């Protein structure tokens, strides 16, 4: 983690690739928004060609209703972009939003997110990844890490160290010490922003903690928290519960101003 904090500012300065996330966090950004949008559209169209989307008018209308309420409170240019929502024939509880204005919701998500507020938790989180440019940031970090590993391998070879062994060791160190912990930072940032957006859109922010408690109860083998790309469900629920109390005035003001979504499945 410390290595990443040293590397990113240096690369920002050398490559003029600095950006700031909506929460004020410094980001290394070496991939353009246009490139990310094109990649997002290509990936979504590939899923369409592969027959991943299912014709489910009720579920699609419901997910679109929740999405539109959230999109309306996003900062520009995302609040004026044309977004498309599709339902994926997959029973796992998952959803995504892609640069380029595309949203996918697995059918299994509706079994866990059982009302509009809980679905807004998921979609607000995914939209926050797009607004925060996490995809481009992730790609930029990978590019920087690969460059560092190559440089370290070359240096090790000059010192008589086995180059293959050095590359493997550096690769594991980079993954555990830089990429995965930083991904957890992105996930936590998306939690914070998504909960803020849902409150501004008139969805109850208290639903965030309830949803992640349900997600944590899904069971199954889970990796240790320090090796996971997501914060633990229990820690996530606790943090979101605390943030919800601070967002209740925002939610109540949004409802008073006419932001009263009524999305039903």
Can you describe this structure?
This protein is mainly alpha-helical. 62% of the residues lie in helices and 8% in strands. The chain contains nine helices and five strands. It has helices at 2-15, 33-49, 57-71, 109-112, 116-131, 134-158, 163-200, 207-216, 233-256, and strands at 18-20, 26-28, 84-88, 95-98, 102-106. It has a three-stranded mixed β-sheet. It has a two-stranded antiparallel sheet with strand order 1-2. Strand 4 (95-98) and strand 5 form a beta hairpin. Helix 5 (116-131) packs across helix 8, helix 6 (134-158) packs antiparallel against helix 7 (163-200) and helix 7 (163-200) packs parallel to helix 9. The longest helix has 38 residues, at 163-200. The radius of gyration is 20 Å and the shape is globular. 35% of the residues are buried.
Concise synopsis of the structure shown:
The chain contains nine helices and five strands. It is mainly α.
């Amino acid at each position: 983690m410390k290595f990443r904090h040293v590397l990113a500012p240096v690369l920002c300065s050398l490559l003029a690739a600095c950006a700031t996330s909506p929460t004020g966090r410094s980001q290394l950004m070496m991939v353009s928004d246009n490139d990310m949008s094109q990649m997002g559209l290509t990936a979504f169209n590939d899923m369409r060609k592969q027959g991943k989307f299912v014709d489910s008018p009720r579920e699609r209308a419901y997910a679109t209703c929740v999405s539109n309420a959230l999109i309306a409170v996003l900062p520009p240019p995302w609040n004026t972009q044309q977004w498309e929502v599709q339902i994926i024939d997959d029973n796992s509880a998952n959803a995504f939003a892609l640069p380029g204005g595309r949203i996918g919701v697995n059918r299994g998500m509706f079994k866990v997110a059982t009302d509009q507020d809980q679905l807004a938790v998921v979609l607000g989180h995914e939209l926050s990844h797009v607004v925060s440019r996490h995809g481009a940031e992730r790609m930029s970090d990978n590019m920087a890490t690969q460059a560092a590993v190559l440089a370290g391998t070359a240096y090790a070879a000059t010192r008589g160290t086995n180059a293959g062994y050095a590359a493997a060791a550096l690769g594991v160190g980079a993954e555990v010490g830089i990429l995965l912990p930083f991904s957890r930072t992105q996930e936590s940032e998306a939690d914070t922003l998504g909960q803020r957006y849902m409150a501004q859109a008139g969805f109850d922010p208290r639903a965030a903690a309830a949803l992640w408690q349900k997600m944590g109860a899904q069971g199954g083998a889970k990796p240790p928290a320090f090796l996971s790309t997501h914060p633990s469900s229990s820690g996530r629920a606790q943090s979101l519960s605390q943030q919800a109390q601070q967002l209740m005035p925002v939610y109540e003001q949004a409802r008073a101003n006419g932001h009263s979504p009524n999305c039903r499945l």
